[in-house]
Amino acid sequence: MRVLLTFSINPDKGDQLIKEGRIGETMASILEDLQPEAAYFTAVEGTRGGFLVVNMEDASQMPTLTEPLLLGLGATIQMQPVMTPEDLQGAAGEALQQMGQKYG
Fold this sequence. Notes:
With 104 residues, the chain is α+β, with helices and mostly antiparallel strands. The chain has 5 helices and 4 strands; from the N terminus they run βααββαβαα. A hairpin with a 2-residue loop joins strand 2 (38-44) and strand 3.
């Protein structure tokens, strides 16, 4: 299952990593561990952050996906399942059609 991880870096931790010159290596290490399908960096809720699209096979992977961000960046995280257009046209679209017929 694809999951969108939205994260905000703790401002104090981010400042510290930048001043120490370690923000790049920390983020590179996190990305290497998480192997995101996509990664975007931007302001999130007024602070440094970003969006990562990762694959999660099982709920037991949640700590593996979140702890690098929590420990490495002091991040606040939100996780949300997401679909691609292909997912929506395939099995999800069929399920929606069935639900519409049954409940609509």
